[in-house]
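U., I forgot to send this yesterday:
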Amino acid sequence: MVLDAARLRQKPWLDDPAIPDRIHDAVGMIGPEERRCYWWLARNWLGERGCIVDAGAFVGASSVAFADGAVAAGRRSFRGQPIVHAFDYFSVVDTYVQQSISDAFRRIQMGDSYLPIYERQTRDYRDMIAVHPGDFLSHRWDATPIEILFVDLAKTPALNGHVVAQFFPSLLPGHSLVLQQDYFHCWHPYIHITMEYLKDHFDLVDERVDYQTAVWLHSRPIPPEKIDRVVRYDFDAAERLVLLDRLGGRSSAAMRPMIETVKLWQLCLDESYGAARHQLGAMDEAYGLHGNEALWARQALEIEALIPQPMRHGAGPPVPPPAASSAGAINAHVSFDAIIADYPRFHRKPDGTPWFLGVSGDTLKALASHIEPGMRTVETGAGFSSLAFILKGAQHMAICPDDDLEASIRQWCDAKGIDHSRFDYVQALSQDAVPALTGEFDFAFIDGDHAFPIPQIDFYYLARRLKVGGCLAIDDTNIWTGMILAQHLATDSDWRLESEHDGKTSIFRLVAPFRDKGFGNQPFVLANSRGLPEDYYSAFKR
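Result:
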C-alpha cells in the first residue's frame, strides 16, 4: 500500500475493517470518523521517525485512538520515551467542560482536576503516554521530532501561536501531519488565518474529517520569521480578510460556507458590522440560513444575533442585539447614582450584621467607564464592584469563596429589575481558579484575598489572559500586597497607568503583549534591590 497525500485524500479509514470498535468506548468530544482517522494514521502513517502529540487531550478519547493505533503498529515508544505526548490543562475552566464531565462521569466543580478521569480512560496505554498537565503557555517542547500533531487547545491567538512556536519546528517536511480539530467551526478564525498564511508549507489532504478535523501534510520547512509572525499575530484587518477570502476561494463547495462563516465572525471581531451585515445577507441569498440545520448556518444565525442593528433615520437609538449587548441596554433604566445611593450591603460581619465592603461610588463609576456591553471581564472577589460589570452588560466572572455572596447579589439585582444573566459566580479560592482560566479578557479586577502572595498569583495569571489594550485594576493598594503590584506596574513600560481613585484603587492598561521578564528588566525590582553588581542584574535581562 502506497502511503502518500493522494491515499489520505481517499479517506482509507472509512472502510478499514482492522479498526477496532473499542476506540469508540472512551467518552470524549470527537466523532466516530475522527476516531477512526486518528487510529488509522497511528497504525499506518506513523513510522520510526518521531512521536505523536495530542495537544488538547481532554478526557482521553483522542489519546486512546492514537495509542491503540500505535499498538497495532508495534510502536509504544520513541527514543526511550512514550510514543504519545498528551497536553491539557486537565482542570475545569468553563461551564461547558464542567457540564460535559458532570453529565458523563461525576459531578465536578470549577477548578477541579479531571486528570484522574483521563488516566482511567487511558489506563490500558499508560506506559505509552506522557502526560503534560497545566497551562500550555508554560510548556516548552524539547525538539523531539513529531510525526502526527493533533491540535485541540488553540482556543486563543496566544495558545495558537504557542502551538506553532513549540511544535511546528519539530515537524518533518514531506512526512508529518497536522490535525486541527477546531477547523470546521467559526469561533477561532486565527486558526484558519494561520494555516492559510502557512499554505506554502502544508498540503491540505482532508478539509473535513467529521466532526471538525482538517488534516495537512507538512511539505516544506517554515522560515523562523513566519513562525514569529504567527506568534505575534500582528495581521491587520485587511490582511486577515485577504487570507480568509483566498482560503474560501480555494475551498470545496461543501467547505466554503463554513469559511464564509469564519469570515463573518472575523468581521464582527473587527467591529466591521456593516460589512458583517452585507456578508450575512450574501450568505442567506446564496445558501439560505433560516431553517438550515448545517453547523455553519446555525453558527451564522448565532452571529447575526450579535451584530448591532444600524441606526434608522428618525428611529431613535439602534436596537441592541439580544446576546452581547442586551444586558447593558436592559439595565439602562438603573443609574449608577441610584445604586450608590442605595448603598447595598452584600457582605456580612461575623455576627451576621449586613456590612458594606467595597469600592467607593466614584471608583465604581471609574471601573464602569472602561466597560462596554459584551466585554469579557473577571474579578477576584465580588460584591459592590460586581455591579459595574453587571450593569454595563459584560460577560462577567467573579471568583470568590463566599458561599452566600452570590445569592445576595442576585437577589438585590432581581429586586431592582437588573438583568444579571451574564454574571457568572465561581465559588472558589482565586489561587485555585485563576490559573485555570482560558481565553482572553478585556478587563480584570484584583480585589480578592490580600494576604501575600495571593494578589501576586492573581495578577500573574490574569495578566497572561488580558488582551493588549485591556485594563487591569488593583484595589486596596493601601495594603502592602496591592501597593507593590501597583508600584511595579507603574514602572513597567508594557503598562500605562490610566487613573487612581481614593488613594487605594489603580487602573492600568496593557499596551504590549504580556511577557515574562527577567528581573533585570523590571525597574521596580532593581530599584528595591541592593548589594549586587550591575553586570549581575544585566545578566538576568530577557
